[in-house]
Structure formats: C-alpha cells, structure tokens
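Appendix B.2, paired examples.
Example (i):
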Amino acid sequence: MGAILSQLGHLFVQSIPTVIFVFVLLVILSRIFFRPLIGVLKQREAMTTGALARAREQTAAAEAKTREYELAFQTARQEVYRQREADRQAGLKEREVTLQKAREQADVLVRDAQLELAAQVEAAKREMAPSSKSMASEIMEAVLGNGPSASNRGGGRP
C-alpha cells in the first residue's frame, strides 16, 4: 500500500504544474473570454427586456390612444346624428309651415272661386229668368201643338 501511496504522491507532484496551468488558463479565459461574453449576454438580455418593456409601454399607449380616438369618433358620430336629427326636425317644421300656408292659400282660392261661381250662377239666373218664361211658353205651345201661329202672336209674351 505504501507503493500505491508513493505513486499517488508522485502523480500528485507531477499534476501540480498541470493544475496550475489549468487554473491560470481558467483565470485567463475568464477575464478575456467569459467575462466579456457574460457581459454581452447580460447587455443583450437587458436590451431585450428593455425592448419588451418599451414595446409593452408603447402597446399600452397605442391602446390608450385607440380608446381615446374611438371615444372621440363616437362623440363626433353622436354629434353628427344629433345635428342631422335637428336639421330633419327643422325641415319637417318648415315643410309643415309651407304646407299650412299652401292649404290656407288653396282654401282662400277655393272660397273665392265658389263665391265667383255663385255670383255667376246668380247673374245667369237673373239673365235667364225673363227669357225662361217665354221659352217655357214656346216649348209648351210646340209640344201641345198650338202650332206656329201661337209663336208669332206676341213675340214670346206670356
């Protein structure tokens, strides 16, 4: 067993330069390669996280602007509908007033026409009243057969 221990001691002494070399290599690689690599990875992660955070913030801001735009658009649409309804009501009122005026004018014209027609009827009756009696007697004589001598008699007097 002593031989094994002495061989192990000898291997240990021989491996010291290798261990030191590996340790120095580890320190050199750590300072030259791993530290910058870890720094770049951390920076990349920070940038990615920052970019994601900024993207979330911008998304939230865009959603807020979208809601604000939709609210403003809805308000404008409601205002347009209100204005359109007010214009429609005003148009209906104006139309009703115009129709009422037209009806009144038509009523006046109809009344005037009726009065004029009644006056013409009365004038025609007055004109026809004297001649209607003579015509009635002439028709009666013609129908009853009194002949033409009766029509020549008095020129149409009754």
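Example (ii):
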Amino acid sequence: MKRLRYYADSSFLVSCYLLDVNTSVASKYLLALKEPLPFTALHEIEVRNAMILSVFRGIITADDVTKAWIQVQVDIRRGLLVRTALAWNTVFRRGTRLSSSFSAVIGTRSLDILHVAAATSIRAKHILTFDTRQRTLAMRAGFRVGP
C-alpha cells in the first residue's frame, strides 16, 4: 500500500461531508490534495458520532446524516478514503507521551491526542484539522498542519 502522507482529523472530515463554516476550505483543500486520506476506526466512530450529534443539536436531520454517511462509504469504495488499521497499543503509548509532554501547556483533549498519535503511527507528515488545540499539538509534535 502506498504510504499515506496526510492524516485528516474528524473536524476536517466532518466539514467535507456536512455543510458548516469550514466546508468551503475543506473541500478546496481536499480537491487540491489529490491523494487518499486514511480512515481509521477512530474516524468511523468520531465522524459518525459528530454527524449524529448535529441531529441532536438541531443543526441537520437524520436524513442528512444518512446521505452524508452514504457519501463517506462511496468515497471509501472510490479510494478517496482508505480504511487504515492502527496498532492501538502503540497509538495509546504515543498518546500517553504526547499527553505528558503537552497537555498541561496546551490543554489538549484525549481525542485530539489520539488523532495526533494515530497520525504518528502511520508516519504521516501532515495533519488536516480545524481544531485549534490539536493544531498546536500537531505542530509541536513535528507535523505540518493544514488547511
């Protein structure tokens, strides 16, 4: 399998599939990227849950979630997203080190840490995120960050 150089967190992916303030930027960045993005078990639960939470918050309908999730599945079949298995023990060990080094200073949440640790474990070079704390953590961990 070709090495995946980019890792998109859930904030970026949700903006690709649901209309929000970051959708325009995410879509343009994704079109310019021209290479697949990993899609892990962490993405599976977090992206889908973010979509479902949008229904709870009254932002979108359940039908919108169904349509968006179908598009995620289409993009997996088309190879735009690549199902990527992670060695979770390694991800959690790296996450623990990231937390110890940066959480007291940055205030990162566990899921932010897990995304950066996951990107580290697949040896990505770039992290795509709209999350401010995760962006800071990723930069301190040595990643190039976009968009």
